[in-house]
Specification:
Layout (H helix, E strand, L loop, with lengths): L12 H16 L6 H9 L5 E5 L5 H8 L3 E6 L2 H10 L4 E4 L16 E6 L12 H9 L2 E12 L6 H10 L2 E7 L13 E8 L1
Parallel strand pairs: 1-2, 1-4, 2-3, 4-5
Antiparallel strand pairs: 5-7, 6-7
């Protein structure tokens, strides 16, 4: 039996609706919600094929699609995917668990140029499934493609453990930053933006 993700919305629809409205409100107030998309956009070729793994209500996917990329957003929470479909017309949206992801079964057999897991996605997957999720996502990315992970270092999944799991999934760490605007990563950093390349 597969363990349930730790994302509260899987069992609490009201939490998902609160999360959706929170980001809609921030967007309406002019908050800058595109930092992750700007960075990923700078790292991939024009018209890249991008997998947004754990896409939530689609804010990053939508930004990348607006920049001309072919984007597939995946999330385990149907409520978040429904909001993504409503708010962002460009990407393709899929409801699926990242740990056993098989996008070919959803008609998406072509490999991706890059995949991203932003918004602390690895903190919300089922406990002890992080390595499985990294491997599952990496399988969907072409050789020499990128997997970009944003994760708070207080989320119970140390960077060293993530790097080891990533290595077993065929990923090589190329860069690590403290923020999405590329501030240097130091011993005092509380957040890590890790850029892995598929070997």
């Amino acid at each position: 039996m597969t363990a349930s993700p730790r994302w509260p919305g899987v069992s609490d629809v009201e939490h998902s609706r609160w999360y959706i409205e929170r980001f809609r409100t921030m967007a309406s107030e002019g908050a800058d919600l595109a930092g992750e998309a700007r960075l990923v956009d700078a790292m991939v070729p024009r018209g890249a094929r991008i997998l947004d793994a754990g896409c939530g209500p689609g804010r990053v996917s939508g930004q990348l699609a607006d920049r001309g990329h072919e984007v597939v957003g995946v999330d385990v929470d149907p409520e978040l995917i429904a909001a993504a479909r409503e708010d962002h017309a460009g990407p393709r949206w899929v409801v699926a668990d990242l740990a056993g992801l098989d996008l070919a079964a959803h008609g998406e057999a072509e490999p991706f140029d890059a995949a991203l897991l932003v918004g602390n996605v690895l903190a919300f997957v089922a406990e002890h499934s992080e390595a499985q999720v990294l491997a599952s996502v990496a399988r969907h990315v072409r050789p020499d493609g990128l997997v970009v992970v944003g994760l708070g270092l207080d989320r119970g999944y140390p960077a060293a453990e993530m790097d080891a799991d990533a290595g077993r999934a065929g990923l090589v760490l190329e860069h690590r930053f403290a923020t999405w605007d590329l501030r240097p990563f130091t011993a005092d950093s509380t957040f890590a933006v890790s850029v892995y390349r598929v070997s």
